[in-house]
Amino acid sequence: MSKDVNKKIEQLREQIREHDYLYYVLSQPKISDQEYDKLFAELKELENEHPELITPDSPTQRVSGQPLEGFETVRHSVAMLSMDNTYNAEELKAFDERIKKQLGHDDYDYVVELKIDGLAISLRYENGKLVTGATRGNGETGDNVTANIRTIKNIPLRLRNNINIPDILEVRGEIYMPTSSFTELNRLKAEAGEPLFANPRNAAAGSLKLLDANITKTRNLSFFAYATGEISEPLADNHFDCLEKFKQFGLPINPNITKAKDIDEVMGICLSWDKRRSELDYQIDGMVIKINNLAQRDILGSTGRAPRWCISYKFAAEQAETKVESIDVQVGKTGILTPVANLTPVLLAGTTVKRASLHNFDMLAKLDVREGDTVIIEKAGEIIPQVVKVIEKASESSSAFEIPKACPICGSEVKKDEDGVYIRCINPECKGQLKEKLKYFAGRGQMDIENLGEALIEQLVKHELVKNFADLYKLKRRDIVGLERMGEISAGKVINAIKASKTRPLWRFIAALGIRHIGGQTAQVLTENYDSLDKVMNATEEELAEIDQIGPIVAKSIFEYFHDEKNISIINQLLDDEKFNLEKPAPVNSKKSTGLTAVVTGTLEKFTREEAKEQLKLKGYKVTSTVSKKTSLLVAGKNPGSKLDKANALGIKVVDEQGFLDILGS
Ligand code: IVH
């Protein structure tokens, strides 16, 4: 029986790997996402029933274990060198002259690749299995980021085994975040009031260096392979064919790689990509030009710092010249004042730009941007255009932009953050903040109130029809009929849409409150640990901080929000309305509740923590993250930490992995 199951499991894994290959490497999926998900679910179910058959290279095993304390250091068996740069045709030609001179002839060709603006990584495969993923670090040693690397979907955990694969194969390449994912990540961060990433490269690096792989998994990182490190036998005698081999092994390579016979052809390719770079959904900061023949590379050697057989051609950042028509100060939902330049519209990297961020008042003063000035704006890695410098002053007599001493919307006092650069309006009743808070509350990721747009919110706030989000739910049709562009029918739609939002799940409601540092993701973590708003509101700061993925700063922010009298009074107005969804519904297919509560801690061998929790829920346990008097069972894997001590102190039943398997089997 178990043999048949094992066979079936292996078959499913093979099928899934093949579909991964078709999807990620060849970009030619043969089945729909739903069909793929079905295969995956089938494998997961069999593995859940037979945890003893789970192997680390199974496609289900991308995230496992607990957050790390820190990264171990890995020594690169072959150093990861840097690359020399060129910035124009002359420098590129000079590079070609050096090659010609050193080789003593001109019988060589180049491979031209995009220079992906991410971070370099080295993947070590032993017998076709991914064993280590390490960052470049200082070139000699880097950080062991294997747990995070494993979450990247287009990196195979196991290479395709239909051809000979060297026993040891180190693959080097670039980890990057697609531009669209970066924009979305920053949108979510902005909504949660968290600091933004400056560009996709920083976002990729930040995501890869998180200690909790569960978060890295949500960051949609991706990979392109472009070089080898240590290798037990050669793959081919030239680079282009090596890349072809990579592809056959199931490793993703960039689709825009070309051979070029001489430096003029190389230059043509570089110029053409400089113009076309905005077509791509990832950032490139130039091109990489490599000698194709590996024996010729050996002759050329390296300087110790960088190989002599390759060079980059760096693009200039995309810039445009335009005029600052005016400077506005915006007030965000947490009161931050941001200076923004309104520009004469100008085309830059494929989009028309009308506004550019000036970040904060320190930056504004440093650049000394004034209304009427002609400025250079830039979209380097950054997606939001920035003002780089002033190239022409409006006039000798123009005056510097003054840092507001009062909120431009409500006129009340502003304060500079103690440890930061932001200036905030500290009036909790500020209409500017209220508008932003309501916009956020009604926004797509939160309560999703379809007919409640910016223009209507403006009017509701202006006419003092709404002073907080509880007021939204008290609005009657007659209150809003007669506002600009608001007839009977549209007013009815708005009121219905507001009413309909009462049934949004609890986590969306929590996210919608706009608590500092709490976006949708953290709100979901909260509702996984507390099944009603009441319980979240009554949680202590210590209890909150003990939840995985919630740190002390976030815990403090949640606690303070729910202990502020004004906030409590607003929420209480909603708690009285029973249509509001302030309880979390029980999962649909969970067994009848046993009334028992379990906590999982430490590393289990056969399960990720999430999987173990799922199993317990299926057994009818309520799963929480903190050990308390109410806990009935603690499942403790390796390195259980303080939860085990606490459980022992409270006399709670503790089982190890075997005990856990016994419970599942019973
Ligand atoms: S080959 C000796 N190919 O650029 C270096 N690197 O500025 C061999 N990069 O550290 C690397 N795209 O992170 C190579 N197609 C590509 C690349 C690429 C981006 C990065 C890489 C390297 C950096 C040097």
Helix count equals 25
Q: Ligands bound here?
A: 2-(butylsulfanyl)adenosine
Largest sheet at a glance? 7 strands, antiparallel
User: For the record, what is the CATH homologous superfamily label of the largest domain?
Assistant: DNA ligase/mRNA capping enzyme
Instruction: Outline the low-pLDDT stretches.
Output: 586-590
The CATH architecture of the largest domain can be named as: 2-Layer Sandwich
Provide the number of structural domains: 6
* Helical proportion, percent range: 25-40%
- Helix-and-strand structural type: alpha+beta
For the secondary structure, the number of strands is 22
What fold name stands as the CATH topology of the largest domain? D-amino Acid Aminotransferase, Chain A, domain 1
What Rg, in angstroms, do the CA atoms define? 29 Å
Mean pLDDT: 89
Q: What amount of the residues lies in strands?
A: 15-25%
> First CA to last CA: what distance?
19 Å
Please give the CATH class of the largest domain: Alpha Beta
Description:
- With 666 residues, this protein is an alpha+beta fold.
- The chain folds into six domains: 3-53, Helix Hairpins; 85-314, DNA ligase/mRNA capping enzyme (D-amino Acid Aminotransferase, Chain A, domain 1), CATH 3.30.470; 319-416, Beta Barrel (OB fold (Dihydrolipoamide Acetyltransferase, E2P)), CATH 2.40.50.140; 431-503, DNA polymerase, domain 1, CATH 1.10.150; 506-575, 5' to 3' exonuclease, C-terminal subdomain (DNA polymerase, domain 1), CATH 1.10.150.20; 590-665, BRCT domain (Rossmann fold, 3-Layer(aba) Sandwich).
- The strands form five sheets. Strands 12, 13, 14, 15, 16, 17 and 18 form a seven-stranded antiparallel beta sheet that branches. Strands 2-11-10-3-9 form a five-stranded mixed beta sheet.
- Helix 17 (506-512) crosses helix 18 (520-529).
- The longest helix has 24 residues, at 2-25.
- Residues 586-590 have low confidence and may be disordered.
- It binds 2-(butylsulfanyl)adenosine (IVH).
- 2-(butylsulfanyl)adenosine is lined by residues 81-83, 113, 115-116, 120, 174, 226-227, 288, 307, 310, 312.
